[in-house]
Write a structure and sequence with these properties.
Tetracycline Repressor, domain 2; 11 helices; 0% strand; mainly alpha; 201 residues
């Protein structure tokens, strides 16, 4: 992971990893049969870093909140690996356990299996999108061949010009927390309204 953090995912090969470790590439295959197994190990490492200590006395909403912040912190710690992690199916043992734990928070709160699945995926949409935006998204993505200049934006697109300063990294955390709290408030409303529309725990 240190190699990926430093040089990017494209630099990861068994040959280059062997050079960094001071061993032959073939030695790595004694621990990881192929590169796919090595990638799975990196995914599991990310999941271990995403875990946060959830105290029993915290309610389900606080446990979701802390878990969400742990996920974001993990992504920001390893931004060069996160785009791969974001599309991994998380079907390793650690990945399945991670998913099971989050769904468990929702089921223990009394949500039906269907609602627990829906809320889990909704949270996943938000966290993955937010983390991708912060690690590899809009500001770091492809640009137009002839981008609109800042001067043109200031003169002709005043709404964007006014909001522009708040798109900067200094505001990322506040934006993340605003979106997360809106999402959690919606899930909490659904929790209070359980049973009104045929949804049973």
């Amino acid at each position: 992971m240190a190699l990926v953090d430093r040089e990017g995912l494209e630099a990861l090969s068994t040959r280059h990893l062997g050079e960094q470790l001071g061993c032959e590439a073939m030695s790595i295959y004694h621990h990881f049969p192929n590169k796919a197994h090595l990638m799975d190990a990196l995914v599991d490492l990310m999941l271990a870093e995403a875990k946060v200590k959830l105290l029993p006395e915290w309610g389900w909403l606080e446990r979701l909140r802390r878990s969400a912040h742990g996920f974001r912190a993990m992504a920001l710690t390893h931004p060069k690996f996160f785009p791969y992690f974001a599309v991994h199916r998380l079907n390793t043992p650690a990945g399945v356990a991670f998913i099971d734990g989050i769904i468990g928070i929702l089921r223990e709160a009394g949500f039906s299996d269907r609602d627990a699945a829906t809320h889990f995926r909704t949270i996943g949409y938000y966290l993955t999108g937010a983390a991708l935006d912060e690690t590899a998204g809009y500001a770091k993505g492809p640009s137009a061949a002839e981008p609109v200049s800042d001067e043109t934006i200031a003169a002709n697109f005043r709404n964007l010009a006014a909001a522009g300063p708040f798109f900067q990294p200094a505001h990322f955390l506040a934006t993340f927390e605003t979106g997360l709290e809106m999402l959690l408030a919606g899930i909490e409303r659904a929790h209070r309204g359980r049973g009104k529309h045929g949804s049973k725990p």
